[in-house]
Automatic annotation (TrEMBL):
Keywords, ordered alphabetically: Methyltransferase, Transferase
UniProt record, GO biological process: methylation
Superkingdom of origin: Bacteria
Span of the signal peptide: none
Domain Methyltransferase stretches: 74-171
Species of provenance: Amycolatopsis balhimycina DSM 5908
Protein name as it appears in the record: Methyltransferase domain-containing protein
Pfam families: Methyltransf_25
GO molecular function list: methyltransferase activity
Length: 467
């Protein structure tokens, strides 16, 4: 079933806008990220026989190209400007392998234009095919020996569709190379990891808590939902579990979690790798992160892996197996806490009445501000006759309008939202013990200058009223 619904077109437009002008999409990582990666990720890859990421990808392509009398066909998902992919071609040509054809699948036409220009400049345009399409609707029209998902899968809403197309197009000995994010949706912390980050945060001096987006020193760690208005991390937590339903791993290394905020682009640049104290702190958090992962107290937020159409012998690091890394987000923890098999949600404090929120509220920020598109699943506990929809906007708000309420993608009601506290009872009928997807789509938005969020209103609460 398609995952697309109301608000999809706005998210798609936001994705295009975000990346249209980006000529460097994998750079600008802070030195702290390279320090952590070299000490805590690279050695694990090397122990599994992988010198590095480029070597892994190029090696998988070369392994297949060497045994073929035809071109090896390589599909790169979310190829951006094509810089990495053209680098793979150069490396393969240097090894005497010219029978490789690249297919670059990318949503953004501006990025495709840059990739095409680079391919012409390098004299390999005849080896490169551009496919400008949306992951969520693209249909495979060729067989692929290698498919590469390099920081792309966490942008996909309809993972089931994409994985089906990949599986159906891979040759018998084909491979999907994955280097991606597999943590919580929107790249937020799972609660058990958030608790550890908060404890570390309380020990940091102000200069290490400066937010690169706002310029402010954050007294508390700000766990931004990156999926509020686009596709960044939209279904990150489903990337791995759904993938395991389609393909079989042969190399599997999950890593990273508690370390993430200290090596990302928001706070990571605060750490000076020429300062021994800062270096020691990054190393210590890296050791803690590894220990929590190895004990199974947290799950990895990043993954480097190989997947195949049929079962293969599996190489893993220690006990970091697929089974211990895939989180079942459908399970509700009766203790009310999200831990190793999470199901908790921030919905309990906002949604009341005859229903239980069974997943997280996509589009709702930590401070209850709502993006123009909000969506979450609900299981009704009794017949529902109406929704009590309560919102707030500052009294001086100049942007406001109406919010369309949809059930499983079908509009059923509309609320007018204006300044101040507003409470409206909307006629929405739902049968008892039914799992539905509720969505709320505003016809206006405001971009907050401080953290660049695109917002509409504050969701004060939502009541499911029994008949």
């Amino acid at each position: 079933m398609s995952q697309r619904g109301p608000g999809y077109d706005q998210r798609l437009a936001r994705e295009r806008e975000t990346f249209a002008g980006q000529e460097e999409i994998h750079g600008n990582l802070p030195p702290s990220a390279h320090r952590w990666s070299n000490r805590h990720v690279r050695p694990k890859l090397e122990a599994l026989g992988v010198p590095g990421l480029d070597e892994l990808i190029v090696g998988q392509i070369a392994e297949r190209a060497q045994g073929l009398s035809r071109d090896a066909v390589v599909l790169s998902l979310g190829s951006g400007n094509g810089d990495q992919e053209l680098g793979w071609l150069r490396g393969l040509a240097g090894a005497g392998l010219d029978n490789v054809r690249l297919r670059l699948l990318e949503l953004n036409p501006e990025m495709q234009a840059r990739a095409e220009a680079s391919a012409r400049e390098q004299g390999v345009a005849d080896r490169v095919e551009l496919i400008t399409a949306d992951f969520n609707t693209w249909r495979a029209d060729a067989e692929h020996d290698v498919v590469v998902g390099f920081q792309a899968l966490h942008h996909v809403l309809d993972l089931e569709h994409l994985y089906g197309q990949i599986k159906g197009s891979l040759t018998g000995d084909g491979v999907l190379v994955v280097h991606d994010m597999i943590g919580r949706n929107g790249h937020r912390r799972w609660p058990e990891a958030h608790e550890v980050v908060d404890r570390i945060w309380a020990t940091l001096p102000p200069e290490l808590r400066r937010n690169a987006l706002t310029g402010h020193v954050d007294e508390q760690f700000v766990d931004v939902d990156c999926a509020a208005d686009g596709f960044e991390g939209i279904r990150a937590q489903d990337v791995l579990p759904v993938l395991l339903d389609f393909l079989h791993p042969s190399l599997f290394l999950p890593y990273g979690n508690v370390i993430d905020p200290f090596v990302d682009r928001i706070y990571g640049h605060n750490f000076d790798m020429d300062d021994p104290a800062h270096v020691a702190l990054i190393d210590e958090i890296g050791v803690l992160d590894d220990s929590l992962l190895d004990l199974g107290l947290v799950t990895g937020t990043r993954l480097t892996a190989l997947f195949h159409p049929s079962p293969q012998p599996l190489r893993v690091h220690g006990n970091r197996t697929p089974e211990r890394s895939a989180r079942d987000t459908r399970v509700v923890d009766p203790a009310g806490r999200v831990s190793f098999r999470p199901g908790g949600t921030n919905g309990e404090r906002l949604v009341r009445g005859a229903g239980i929120v069974t997943g997280r509220l996509n589009g709702i920020a930590h401070d209850d501000w709502a993006a123009p598109s909000v969506e979450f699943p609900v299981l009704t506990t009794a017949p529902v006759d109406a929704l009590d929809f309560r919102t707030y906007l500052p009294d001086d708000a100049t942007e406001h309008g109406s919010v369309t309420v949809s059930v499983d993608g079908v509009p059923v009601a509309k609320a007018d939202v204006g300044p101040g506290l507003t409470e409206q009872v909307l006629p929405v009928r739902l049968e008892a013990h039914r799992q539905v997807r509720l969505s709320f789509d505003a016809d206006w938005s405001v971009t907050a200058g401080g953290d660049r969020r695109t917002l509409a209103y504050v969701l004060v609460g939502l009541g499911l009223l029994e008949r």
